[in-house]
Amino acid sequence: MGVDILYLLIPLSVVLVFIIGLLFGWALKRGQFEDLEGPGYRILMDDDGPPRSRVDISSTGDDGQSAET
Length: 69
Prior knowledge:
Number of strands: 0
Number of helices: 2
Oligomer: single chain
Structural class: mainly alpha
Distance between the termini: 90 Å
Shape: rod-shaped
């Protein structure tokens, strides 16, 4: 009786390995493993500073002339 279950489990495991291989190949093709260190560095970047003020550059330049020419 214990041998009968092997007739189910062995083909099932082969199919499962094939599906995992296809998913891994799909991930490689889509570039999922290109940048492995970038997300870790982005977490460490400190961009919690005060918000930058917006400067209206359309009114006048440094020389007092209108920027719309």
